[in-house]
Every structure is written in structure tokens, then in C-alpha cells.
Amino acid sequence: MKRLLAIGFIVGYLGMLNYGLICHVLNFRVGSHPLMYFVVWDMFCGWTAYDSRTHIIAEGESQKLYELTPPPWGELHPWGDLGRQHYDAFNNHTGRIGFNSLRHTQHEPITRLFVVEEAWAKKYNIPEVAWQARYDEPKEVQKYYRVRTVLMPDGRVVQSYTPWTEYQADLMLADNPRLQRDALKSRPMFILDQQRPGRDMLVEPGSVGGARPPLTPPIGAPLVN
């Protein structure tokens, strides 16, 4: 009996690992259930040198901008002290989070909804004492803001762009003379991802560096003329 249980455990264990490997290779239902994290081979995926936060902003008919997160009643912190919108790296649910704030507050008619990514180098997260011991220059955090998604009031996604780090990688690839020569000799490449680099590969309307644009109070606060 013990032998049969051991064989059954080994077969089940290897079967689950193979199932996770096949799902990862084929990109099939990798996020269908939280338990998929334990069988899909995604060890250390997405670790970059940059930290990021997500801001959901609405634009009214008067062209005023209103911050929808955190909502007036507070936000959900599933892990640690960050709101749930910061964990949605692929922006699958950020639009619904913003529209939930709009449904439960009084506001002027909304024309568009923006999901904005705020990014900065993770080295600035270290304490001031550690910074002074490691670096000679003062700790001046440089943050970058990039529009990730633009939605209409009915929930339709009209624009979707890659994250800031991927955008910078695309710029480096586009600036490589050898890759440019190879591209002229090769077949066209088909991009299967729904996200696009966008027109900002030529000009930069989607990326804003430096200070954050001014916002009116949160959507639940009284509107200011």
C-alpha cells in the first residue's frame, strides 16, 4: 500500500509540473486560478531595476483631471500597504476600479479615463542613511510618467501602451544600427501582444518625465471651478 501511495504521489507531482510547464510554454490559462502560481514556471519573472505605481485618472467635460484612486471610502490593501490597483501589472482590472469610483460618487460628465504608470529606479527606495553611505550625490528621485491605457466612459479601451521599461527597451533596439540593417533584410515581424509601443516610438506624447501633472482633488471631493 505504501508503495502504491508513493508511486501515486510521484506520478501526480510530475504530472502537475508537466502541466504547468506546458501551460507556461503555450501561455494557456496561466492565470486562471491562484494555485497556478505553484505549477507555472515563472520564478523571478518581472524583476526589474524600476519600481512602479498605477494612477487612475478621469477627465471631465471641463477638461479637469480627477484622481480616482484611492476612492473617498478608502482602498483595499491585499498585501502590505499598497492598493490593489498597483498589483495589476497588465491593467486587466484597473478600468473597473476607476469606474467603480465613478459609479459611487457625484461628478461632472466624464469623457475619458486614463491609467498612468509612475516609475522610478528602485535604488531610491533605500533609507537615507544607506544612501549617504553608498552614494556621494544627493538623493534626488527622478520619476517618469507614462499613459498605459485610455478608456471611454462605456469601458471601451481606445489606446493601450507597453510599460515604461519595455518602451525604453524598444527605443534601444530601434537605435541599434545593426538591428536596423537586419530588419531591412528580414521578413516583417508580427506583434501578437495586444499592447503596442504606440506613436511615441516616433514622438513622445505618451511619456512624461519630471514633475507629476497637477490634479484636482479626488473624485469624491467637491468640484472646484
Please give the structural blueprint.
Layout: H1 2-26, E1 50-60, E2 65-67, H2 94-103, E3 110-121, H3 128-134, E4 144-151, E5 157-160, H4 164-174, H5 177-185, E6 207-209
Antiparallel strand pairs: 1-2, 1-3, 3-4, 4-5, 4-6
The termini sit apart by 78 Å
Q: How much is the radius of gyration in Å?
A: 22 Å
- Structural class by secondary-structure content: alpha+beta
How many beta-strand runs? 6
Order of helices and strands: HEEHEHEEHHE
- Stretches where pLDDT is under 50 for at least 5 consecutive residues are 199-225
Described by the principal axes of the CA atoms, the overall outline is extended
Number of domains: 2
Task: Give the fraction of residues assigned to helices.
Answer: 25-40%
Overall average pLDDT: 80
Provide a count of the helices: 5
Description:
With 225 residues, this protein is an alpha+beta fold. It folds into two domains: 37 residues; 149 residues, no CATH class. Helix content is 28%, strand content 18%. It contains five helices and six strands. Strands 1, 2, 3, 4, 5 and 6 form a six-stranded antiparallel sheet that branches. A hairpin with a 5-residue loop joins β4 and β5. The termini are far apart. The C terminus is likely disordered.
